[in-house]
C-alpha cells in the first residue's frame, strides 16, 4: 500500500472549510500593515526591496551596480531594522 506524501499547509493561502474559504492569500507585510505594526511607507519599501532581491537572485542579463545594492541595504537598515528593534 502506497502512502500519501506529506502535505504542507501554507498559512497565507485560504483553506477550504466545508464549501467556504476562510482566509485569502496575503503576504506577511500586508498582515503587518493591517495590524498597525508597520506603516504603509515601510510596506512599500519592503515590497520594492523584495522585487529587487528577486531580480538579483534569479539568472538574468541585468547588471546591478554595487551602489544600488548598497543603497538597498542602507534603505532597509535605516527604515526597517533600526526603526523596529526586536
Question: Could you characterize what this model shows?
Answer:
The protein has 3 helices and 2 strands. The protein has one domain (16-81). It is flat. α1 runs antiparallel to α2 (40-57) and α2 (40-57) packs antiparallel against α3 (66-81). It has 86 residues and is mainly alpha-helical. β1 (16-17) and β2 form a beta hairpin. The chain has helices at 28-34, 40-57, 66-81; strands at residues 16-17, 20-21.
Distance between the termini: 49 Å
What is the succession of H and E elements?
Answer: EEHHH
Largest sheet: 2 strands, antiparallel
Widest sheet: strand ordering: 1-2
What is the count of distinct domains? 1
Shape: flat
Quaternary state of the chains: single chain
Number of strands: 2
| Radius of gyration of CA atoms, rounded to a whole number | 18 Å
Quickly give the structural class: mainly alpha
Mean pLDDT: 79
Low-confidence stretches are 19-23
* Strand percentage: under 5%
Please estimate the helix content: 40-55%
Number of helices: 3
Detail the topology: elements first, then pairings.
Elements: E1 16-17, E2 20-21, H1 28-34, H2 40-57, H3 66-81
Antiparallel strand pairs: 1-2
Helix pairs in contact: 1-2, 2-3
What is the compact description of this entry?
This protein has helices at 28-34, 40-57, 66-81; strands at 16-17, 20-21.
Amino acid at each position: 500500500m502506497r502512502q500519501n506524501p506529506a502535505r504542507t499547509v501554507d498559512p497565507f493561502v485560504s483553506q477550504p472549510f466545508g464549501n467556504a474559504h476562510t482566509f485569502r492569500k496575503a503576504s506577511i507585510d500586508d498582515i503587518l500593515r493591517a495590524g498597525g505594526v508597520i506603516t504603509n511607507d515601510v510596506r512599500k519599501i519592503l515590497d520594492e526591496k523584495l522585487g529587487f532581491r528577486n531580480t538579483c537572485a534569479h539568472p538574468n542579463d541585468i547588471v546591478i551596480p554595487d551602489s544600488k545594492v548598497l543603497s538597498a541595504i542602507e534603505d532597509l537598515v535605516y527604515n526597517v531594522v533600526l526603526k523596529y528593534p526586536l
